[in-house]
Amino acid sequence: MSAVAVGSARRIAWRRRRQSFAGAWRQYRASTPGMIGLVVLVAFTLLALAAPLLADQAGLAAVNSTHNPVWASPADFAPLGTDHLGRDVWTQFVWGSRISLLVGLAATVLAIVIGSLVGVTAGFFGGRPGSVLMRITEWFLVIPFLPLALALAAVLGPSVGNIILVIGITSWPSTARLIRAQVLTVKERLYVDRSRALGATNGHLMARHILPSVSPLILANLTLTVPVAILSETTLSFLGLGDPSRPSWGKMLEDGFQAGALSQHAWWYYVPPGLGVMLVVLAFVLCGHALEEILDPRLREQRS
Q: pTM for this structure?
């Protein structure tokens, strides 16, 4: 095949991909819940990225807040008051958004990578390797998530990296089962059989046929796994297994509980992080459902 023909084929492929992306974006914009979720996510992402501009990181240390009143309400200390140590709640909220989003996204990527590798391998090759991988997956599924995560976090120690690792290695089994089921369907399709009959290797089949076919499912599952990871980080931090030196929304809730924010009626200390977690989780769920409807037309027909 000449270089001109190869270049022409690539341009055609890229044109089709751009058209497909443009069509998917038009469908996504038509989804009001999806657009609301996207706007909320963009807003919190910008908040996290602009943290150094919005709040001084030095305010996170209690030694730098001795001149501030304790348990000051937002009316007395704008914009979100202070905690029991005189630290600015706004500063903790802004910098805490960075850790919560980082842990949620990084742990989700780790879980999706592990789950996809296990699911594709088990579904495509089958046999003894697939059976062993699925038995391991089922072992993780039958163990309750929270006790396993608590045990791992306690053993590894409190740090952001360990929290990401704990959530990632305990959140992949559902993804693996989902991807395996899709791979079992895709590998039996006619175009895969034709490619195999023409001498295609397993690597070629996986790279050119299997992975492109399951990629939309992986993308949709990714957006629905992030909120679970964020809630998991919040839970582990609230239970005292988060990084004590790094602020997060879960750490704020844990500090507020330990300091008696409820008995002090200091709603400004626990409402902002709780509201932040709720909005981000809801936004990811809305985006995930919108993507599901685009990638699976049957869902769109059922809900219309």
A: 0.84
